[in-house]
Design a protein that fits this description.
By secondary structure, this protein is of the alpha+beta class. It is built from eight helices and twelve strands. The chain has a twelve-stranded mixed β-sheet, with helices on both faces. β3 and β4 form a beta hairpin. The protein is globular, with a radius of gyration of 19 Å.
Length: 270
Amino acid sequence: MIHELQRNEFYKCYELIDKETLLEAAAVINGINSGRIFVDSLDCPATAIVWLGNNDGFLFIGKAENPTLVKELNEWIDQFLKKEVSQLGLTWFEAIATHESWYTFFENAFTHRKTESWHQEVYKIDQKKTHFSLKKGYHLLPLDHSLFNLPNVFQNVAEIEKKINECWDTTEAFCNQGIGYGIVYKNEIVSICYSGFVYKGAHNISIETKASHRGQGLAESCARAYVNECVSRNVLPYWDCMIENKPSIALARKLGCQKVQQYTGYTFPF
């Protein structure tokens, strides 16, 4: 049977973290970022499923060679998870792992489902400061306490706060442990780059630019400001994107990124 851990029980999964574990899963397990954890045993978990707080997938860690897990996982998905995700408007299940044993497990467990797979790449960004400039009319600002304490300064601060709180319990937690920058045009924040997940001095980058302001180099400028701050704080920025996302990979390479990991995800409709 698959059980849900309470937040004060997440420590039971510490030993499941290894060098291949994705930063996002480790961040949730250590209580830094928001998320839920489901395990095969409440007393001594051998397998854990980390449901990221931003609903960006279910990360599988620990032992894949678990003889009862196939049946239990499918029952959990059909009898429990479908109800949970329906309330959130989610229509696809995304299973993500970094070990080959899990890929074999997914292919065996989901034979009766219409499953597709995709590939992700993780990049480590060189820790060196770089110069950047902004076109006339745009200016840079940090995503910090001063911004969120004065929510009426820009028209979409609440929107930015909601986006950040998909990964963090509160903006206070983000401001204390994360890094973020935004680019402003007139009275609106039109591009943001911030720490989605944080674990042991490594920061996973989240970046977004409004469609009406794309194609002007804002994402690159915002990312360079973010990386420069990471260098100042001596933390390591990481970039994670789908192999098919050529613009994202191109931007990662512009920033001097080096690929350090590749992994696979499996998805099917609920």
